[in-house]
Design goal:
Helix content of chain A: 25-40%
Largest sheet of chain A: 5 strands, mixed
Order of helices and strands of chain A: EEEHEEEEHEHEEEHHHHEHHEH
Strand order of the largest sheet of chain A: 3-2-1-4-8
Distance between the termini of chain A: 28 Å
Number of helices of chain A: 10
Largest interface: A-B, 55 and 55 residues
Number of strands of chain A: 13
Oligomer: homodimer
Shape of chain A: globular
Chain lengths: 310, 310
């Protein structure tokens, strides 16, 4: 080591890669969540996995470049992707939102392309890790994260650890049934929360183009939209009561596009969930909006890298 | 150390104390689950906590004596008791099955009386630990235990650890709702599994004295009992599907008096649960009867001591 060659610090930069149904994202952040660079591109899901992963890797290289780093400065890479997937083997089994993604060994492909240790997690679990580390779940050991958008995903932190279950699929809380004789769900189940309260299903039940339109109609006082919305928040409250009884979390963090409805969602959901959950469990839980917004994907993938590398 | 005073091996005997609604039990077992002595007595719940704990301690001393040990040979003491309770502070907050048990510092009382480190856990969590260590959950890291008797209790092992949650009440799976507009539950919730499928509620729904009578009537082909039972197993199957989706267990272990119904319960519950759970999660789970029977209480309390002391 000479003055011209200062000692290189252990790398504290992580690359997060996020594969969504509509867009790809790459970001560089430090372990403390400070974002150094980010880049986004449309998913073009119809291209299939090979082309998408090639573009994702290119996006990752762009982010590394923008952060004025080289790939050797990257401590680890995290990938968030819709499930089901096998986080241990690093294989996407069947990404429901992206046709053609069956048994895709994405971790091996990204490690081959970028030469850094890479870890895979489903996007809702990644979001849970990010909210726990950097967002609305900071400072607690027991937290449930629900993301309510096209579908409903979730991740559970219990005793400070992400729950994985027997094959990495724990926390599929969009598929907790709220009505054993209810609507059929795309997952094959009956009466799943998602079959009522995902954006797609809210819109379908109201006969409107989107959940945003339903919320707008509720604000205008339209009767049919209001009835659909009332049922939606009741079911969401009931499901959260079950989730509170199952996991005894300190916080339930709600994110995803549907939660942009704000108070018209949080106020009744809090009231119903806390009324129905067991008193000793209701007493210690807060139901809060997610804090990371558009950065959930990138910070989620980064949090996966930070968590798994530790 | 002389030949007359052989070195004393580190103690490998544990005392388990179990407080049920109808009986008290004490047992001595080794960490591997080998039972050395056991003793039982009626609860006499109306006597209240002080008298019950005095008799429980006496029962514990009897078991120590029967195992030809002294209290100094006991490595640790575990207590299983109906919740809600605070396992960290060792206090029973409000034992639903035993009137007058409010804020009872049972761990301090037993430590004072017997002079050995003592740990408290709710009886369903204790049962989960026992089935995991000694029974139908051996060898797997992810297991859900449900005990279906007067009420429905549960305990969850995830990644090899018992889930506690924010204040020790995780795993209240009898209070996962299966029908958001269903029967009111004694917990204050609506449509809880327990409100349908506990022994008490099965009997009440069928208008018969006990769940055992309902099962006998089902075997005789009586129509009303059969209709009630069909709904019961459907709801139990639906709830287990939700539980599988939430925890992704390798095994779901069902114990408690109602499961003595045998195939007339397990066959339809397995079919319905596996049909409704998400395919990737259904593929890896077995639904099995508990293995420990009458010894669940004692071995549960012993397992608490073994687990918490480790």
């Amino acid at each position: 080591v000479t003055p011209d060659n200062p000692p290189v610090a252990a790398p504290d930069a992580f690359l997060g890669l996020d594969i969504g149904g509509t867009k790809l994202a790459a970001g560089i952040a430090r372990a403390d969540g400070k974002v150094l660079a980010e880049a986004r591109a449309p998913s073009r899901a119809l291209e299939g996995p090979d082309s998408m992963i090639r573009r994702l890797v290119a996006l990752g290289r762009d982010a590394v470049w923008d952060a004025r780093l080289g790939t050797t400065d990257i401590a680890a890479i995290g990938i968030g992707c819709g499930g089901p997937l096998d986080p241990e083997r690093g294989v996407v089994l069947d990404a429901l939102n992206n046709p053609g993604w069956v048994d895709v060994p994405i971790v091996a492909m990204v490690e081959e392309a970028l030469g850094r240790p890479t870890f895979l997690e489903n996007d809702a679990n990644a979001g849970a890790l990010a909210e726990h580390r950097y967002g609305a779940g900071r400072g607690v050991d027991d937290m449930v994260y629900l993301t309510i958008s096209t579908g409903i995903g979730a991740g559970v932190i219990s005793g400070g650890r992400l729950l994985h279950g027997a094959n990495g699929n724990a926390g599929e809380l969009g598929h907790v049934s709220v009505d054993h004789r209810g609507r059929r769900c795309r997952c094959g189940g009956i009466g799943c929360l998602e079959a009522y309260a995902s954006g797609t299903n809210i819109a379908e039940r109201a006969g409107m183009p989107s959940a945003e339109d339903v919320v707008a109609a509720v604000r205008r006082g339209e009767r049919h939209a209001t009835a659909v919305w009332s049922e939606t928040v009741e079911l969401l409250g009931a499901a959260i009561a079950s989730i509170v009884n199952a996991f005894n979390p300190r916080r339930v963090v709600l994110g995803g596009g549907v939660t942009r409805a704000g108070d018209v969602l949080f106020e009744p959901v809090r009231r119903i969930a806390l009324q129905r959950a067991m008193p000793q469990l209701a007493a210690v839980v807060d139901i809060l909006p997610a804090a990371l917004g558009e950065r959930t994907g990138i910070l989620g993938a980064v949090a996966v890298a930070v968590d798994r590398r530790a």
